[in-house]
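> call design_seq(struct)
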């Protein structure tokens, strides 16, 4: 056997730099956060998390004293701006090759240029590149997607075309696409930004796969560059597999192979590559002791003691630890509770009833004690396994209950078969707890059903179904969405400038100025993550698919409340909130202040309002006039004084008329208190 390993396998420069940056901070006992997983390798992420480095999805999740590390993929410019302008401590581990792309697209002229990005639109690196681009931009991940975009570019009024690529883009696909762009577009500016390490890695993998009868690609299944390596190797060697750890190796394939090739993604640690190589060497040399589960060892030992015969039995009695059945023999049939079902939470009385006829497997016969040990779950599992293999081929969506949360994922019991759902495939987002799924019915799809000797493995994905559901929701949303339409949504995250709301497959944002009729400092004063909110579509950007949401209800408008409850002539208790040379401002209800002119403060002439009033004081005043168009309210304390006290001051009133008029002319705007900051720029959020 020959095992040939790619020299370029393992951490690239950018990944290695980011990991070292995090490790140095942890070694100095800093609390560290990363904006998303530091790399696309959950083994490494979990290891760093155990040391105190936690991944977050949004800046708002940062806690006091934590240092944020921007991963090598980079982030959009608006996130850099928010970090720089806020009181955040952060380190930038963006790969220099990625930063080069940011510089190129940022320099594009919004009026005269158009940018084309080769890469996966949803990949964080591409998202970051798009976030630095001020000009109109498009993305494509293959030649077919390019063909769909080119007609738009060719009709772009002769704008200059700039083309860049994701650093891990497939080099062969890139060359084909660039050839087409050069043939159809006039003088495009093409920047080959594929990382040199990526090109070397892909070229080397292609050559090794061509000379191998079994090719192993090591890396996280969510890693873009690992996925491209797998596609490249698969084209050369049909017998190519992608594994994350040595535990996933197919021993039979290793034993039967003569020439084995090995490569690994840019986010795969050297220790995992070594474990895979060591395991394969041990398998071929016959030194491997395959660790078998207790269940498999029991199965093997029972083979010598039973007939493996299936029989029909009638339930006679049910106890907490076992069920007795009649199988038509002189021995007493016993089903241990553990052999009734694969569901560890199921009780015997919930599975069978006295008198039920069930199919069973004879596990062991004990003639001396006169008993037969039987299993129901193994019969169910065998039947379920056969059905499961059919379901895997059809990619049908299945529904069943999550029975338990285990290390690295959850278990779904489907027709007696335990299906493992990895954590990365169990929830729509990383911040959801796996324990919350236990006991719930979930929809999932099988992504792998395999059997190696006695080992059976079924792996499913809940996330793939959720993604399809959300895609369908998005499509339906955009069919019916219109300005003014109301929706119920769930608040998913908060920023200093607004709240992001999930409308069902699509995200919109409520700007902070839309959350309340009164001034607030942060959205958390009104809503919290997880709240269900009633919103309406305020604005839609058809080109960018960004949605701006409205939240304030008209009935909560303080001017409407004033109109309904406080007509002119009403007497109110108002709190002095400000003093000027010509009068005092007093708060009537939250959001509305009125002006008490200096001539209306007392029944005598006063030099300045501060001689009579002070901020924070509560006074009784009469609403003398309301201008709803200009949003102004006039108040009078003097109007409430007894008539006999007003009479002596009649002359003073006349003398003050000129002063009052001058104050009105001098500072009319001072008489108005804005109810909400309507000048704030609308903020929108790109639909998911």
């Amino acid at each position: 056997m020959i095992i040939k390993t790619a020299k370029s396998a393992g951490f690239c420069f950018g990944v290695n730099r980011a990991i070292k940056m995090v490790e140095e901070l942890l070694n100095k006992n800093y609390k560290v956060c990363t904006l998303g997983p530091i790399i696309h390798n959950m083994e490494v992420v979990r290891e760093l998390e155990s040391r105190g480095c936690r991944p977050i999805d949004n800046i708002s999740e940062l806690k006091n004293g934590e240092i944020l590390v921007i991963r090598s993929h980079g982030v959009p410019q608006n996130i850099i701006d928010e970090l720089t302008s806020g009181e955040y401590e952060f380190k930038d581990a963006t790969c220099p090759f990625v930063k080069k792309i940011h510089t190129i697209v940022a320099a594009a002229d919004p009026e005269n240029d158009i940018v084309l990005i080769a890469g996966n639109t949803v990949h964080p690196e591409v998202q970051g590149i798009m976030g630095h681009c001020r000009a109109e931009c498009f993305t494509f991940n293959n030649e077919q997607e390019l063909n769909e975009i080119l007609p738009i570019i060719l009709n772009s009024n002769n704008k200059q075309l700039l083309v860049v690529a994701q650093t891990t883009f497939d080099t062969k696909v890139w060359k084909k696409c660039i050839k087409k762009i050069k043939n159809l577009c006039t003088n495009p500016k093409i920047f080959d930004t594929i990382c040199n390490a990526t090109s070397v890695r892909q070229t080397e993998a292609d050559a090794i796969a061509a000379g191998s009868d079994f090719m192993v690609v090591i890396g996280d299944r969510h890693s873009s560059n690992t996925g491209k390596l797998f596609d490249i190797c698969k084209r050369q060697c049909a017998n190519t597999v992608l594994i994350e750890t040595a535990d996933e190796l197919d021993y039979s394939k290793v034993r039967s192979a003569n020439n084995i090739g090995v490569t690994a993604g840019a986010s795969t640690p050297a220790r995992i590559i070594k474990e895979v190589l060591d395991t394969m060497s041990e398998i071929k040399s016959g030194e491997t002791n395959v660790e078998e589960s207790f269940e498999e060892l029991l199965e093997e030992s029972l083979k010598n003691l039973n007939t493996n015969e299936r029989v029909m039995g009638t339930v006679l009695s049910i106890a907490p630890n076992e069920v007795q059945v009649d199988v038509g023999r002189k021995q007493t049939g016993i089903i241990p509770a553990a052999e009734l079902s694969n569901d560890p939470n199921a009780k015997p009385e919930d599975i069978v009833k006295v008198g039920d006829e069930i199919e069973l497997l004879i596990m062991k016969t004990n003639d001396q004690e006169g008993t037969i040990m039987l299993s129901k779950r193994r019969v169910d599992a065998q039947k379920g396994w056969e059905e499961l293999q059919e379901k895997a081929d059809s990619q049908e969506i299945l529904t069943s209950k999550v029975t338990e949360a285990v290390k690295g994922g959850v278990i779904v019991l489907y027709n007696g078969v335990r299906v493992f759902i990895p954590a990365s495939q169990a929830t729509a987002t990383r911040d959801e707890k796996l324990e919350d799924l236990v006991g719930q019915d979930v929809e999932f799809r099988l992504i792998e059903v395999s059997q190696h000797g006695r080992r059976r493995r079924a792996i499913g994905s809940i996330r793939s179904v959720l993604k399809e559901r959300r895609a369908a929701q998005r499509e339906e949303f955009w069919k019916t969405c219109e300005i003014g339409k109301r929706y119920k949504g769930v608040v998913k995250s908060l920023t200093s400038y607004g709240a992001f709301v999930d409308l069902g497959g699509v995200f919109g944002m409520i700007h902070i100025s839309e959350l309340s009729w009164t001034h607030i400092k942060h959205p958390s004063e009104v809503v919290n993550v997880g709240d269900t909110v009633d919103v309406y579509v305020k604005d839609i950007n058809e080109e960018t698919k960004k949605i701006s949401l409205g939240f304030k209800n008209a009935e909560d408008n303080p001017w409407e409340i004033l109109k309904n409850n406080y007509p002119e002539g009403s007497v109110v208790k108002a709190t002095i909130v400000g003093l000027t040379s010509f009068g005092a401002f007093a708060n009537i209800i939250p959001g509305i202040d009125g002006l008490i002119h200096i001539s209306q403060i007392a029944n005598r002439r006063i030099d300045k309002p501060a001689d009579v009033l002070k901020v924070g004081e509560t006074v009784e005043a009469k609403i003398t006039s309301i201008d709803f168009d200009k949003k102004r309210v006039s108040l009078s304390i003097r109007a409430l004084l007894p008539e006999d006290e007003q009479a002596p001051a009649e002359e003073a009133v006349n003398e003050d008329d000129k002063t009052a008029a001058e104050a009105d002319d001098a500072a009319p705007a001072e008489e108005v208190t804005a109810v909400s900051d309507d000048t704030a720029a609308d903020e929108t959020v790109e639909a998911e």
